[in-house]
């Protein structure tokens, strides 16, 4: 295997070099889901079309997502002898300009985002010096947006499967030892030490073992796993094979959500290529030692992120959790010892074996080692996928990397950990992001979703949003979760609709604690977190709704009305024409008026008005 | 429907209970939804009671028991989209398509649904139409996009 690997790797390096030191132009387009939604496929078509007619041989490479979603579609151009330039927001018009540059025209500097690699161009920053990249350390994401995820040779040339080769040379104890020294903790949310989880599985009695990758990224507002699967699928496969080798599994399953069609496609291609190369198949772990990976599509149930529910789903049942212990490491899939790890965890395992535990633990804090990927989204200027050393503060992430709050509004809160996490106010922004610090503040790291909110978000409504989600996704097996989340939701709905009473806050708190204590699995045990943290940090907003009869954010519909400002209204009729309930009166060039009796508060008028004449005002419900 | 030959779809799967979810996914992929009479066929193939097929199919949000329109419009209700005003997008679509969430237009052209998260949070709010994602939307943009299509 090793001799074969060296040959494979050498061939891959030659192929990669032919691309990085190409004597013809090389153009990459980020065509992950985020790039596509911003129009990357049209951009690619235009580039191909514009350059097809010329006597110029170009190489096009479709890559994953580089991270700065706000700047999609991203295109890089490497001309022979010139610096590689990354262009941002490449729409069709911009694509034509870039095509002209490739064909020998001038560099459209206004579109240039950064240069990549050793060569530079005056006036254009190096990618790692741009504000969005500066504080980042890209390790797990090092290949995303750089390689063609559909070509195993690109991955190989960048080090993939070299960790597996090393792991094959070590014995089991040395592998566990390596993992232990790296300090890697589960990246799915709970932060359990990975080496210990594997050790539990190894120590459990049984002949058959399984490794499962949880790629059912269900947290709304998070897409770290999607990006990694779409941009560098071999990173996951390598980590899974190492896991299989270490715990003694011959079969692994990737449980990936069906909402990620592109990721599923890329995984299928990667698995096929890994089989052809011999990394998977009958002799994957040595002569006569097979290892295979199968992909199972999740069918849309948030609770399947919970280990035992995921196993039930894989076995063909409703995705309902069961009490633990026994933990899956002892009794998991079909009753066999099973390790379940998240996508990023397994990709980190591959890195640890490629570079060594000491290298991995260079970054991070005492108890939270390494780097972590985060989906930085919401009301932030530069939303996207970022990777930072653990211990980086929320402020650094939101303000330095994310560029602060978008659209000129004031920062209000940041939410971490998805529906299981909580909201933190501005004075908590300087806590370091690690497992313990976040927990102390009342929230969790979770899988890495970070949602920034400005003053226009109502925190009561935000808690209601998460409880709506939790109540909807509760599997219904245990009463505290099934009934408790629904009851919490009702109370929150009452408050946001102007029907709250002063005793509600105490009720919310008491009920939250009971739901947390009584629920069978993590879904119910963490579902009240958004309620408790908003009560802890934004209690005044609850009080304002209940006692002050106002929604300070002017977001809850029952607390607002739309009015037309006579100073600004030009009588253009735009709002009147679009009002879905014909609720705006006023002839052309006359002052318009909104009929409050029929208004459904859809906000179309205020979106439409270009004169800032439609204003949102607070009313008592 | 009963005339639909599911043989080729079914035969790709082992006749075991753990094939149930992939089986249902494959059947829905080929028929667009899960008609009631198909559940029995699936049950026999996976060697499980029909009640379990229904139990599983009704548990997961991916499965539908009614036909859907040619264009499946799904509004993302993820956190970033929520903060970005997803409910206004949904309401605008309800008005423009003249159907409510979960419904299909009479001409079977459009279905309107919500999805937990598409994973395009950096470009919120977004929707998908038959798995193709449009991002950075406003109520005005969706109105324009679908008004034209409805004419």
What does this protein look like?
The complex is a heterodimer of chains A (621) and B (151). With 621 residues, chain A is α/β, with parallel strands linked by helices. Chain A has five domains: 19-127, Glutaredoxin (3-Layer(aba) Sandwich); 152-360, 3-Layer(aba) Sandwich (Rossmann fold), CATH 3.40.50; 371-454, Roll (Ubiquitin-like (UB roll)); 459-546, Up-down Bundle (de novo design (two linked rop proteins)); 557-618, Alpha-Beta Plaits. Helix content of chain A is 40%, strand content 15%. Chain A contains 25 helices and 18 strands. Chain A has a five-stranded mixed beta sheet with strand order 2-1-3-4-5, covered by helices on one side. A five-stranded mixed beta sheet of chain A has the order 11-10-14-12-13. A four-stranded parallel beta sheet of chain A has the order 8-7-6-9, sandwiched between helices. The longest helix of chain A has 19 residues, at 2-20. Chain A is globular, with a radius of gyration of 27 Å. In chain A, 54% of the residues are buried. The mean pLDDT of chain A is 95. Chain B is of the alpha+beta class and 151 residues long. Helices cover 44% and strands 12% of the residues of chain B. Chain B contains seven helices and four strands, in the order H-H-H-H-E-H-H-E-E-E-H. Chain B has helices at 7-11, 20-31, 36-46, 50-59, 79-83, 86-97, 139-150; strands spanning 71-76, 110-115, 127-129, 132-134. A four-stranded mixed beta sheet of chain B has the order 2-1-3-4, covered by helices on one side. In chain B, a hairpin with a 2-residue loop joins strand 3 (127-129) and strand 4 (132-134). In chain B, helix 2 packs antiparallel against helix 3 (36-46), helix 3 (36-46) packs across helix 4 and helix 6 (86-97) runs parallel beside helix 7. Chain B is elongated and about 50 Å long. Chain B starts with 6 loop residues before the first helix and ends with a helix. The mean pLDDT of chain B is 91.
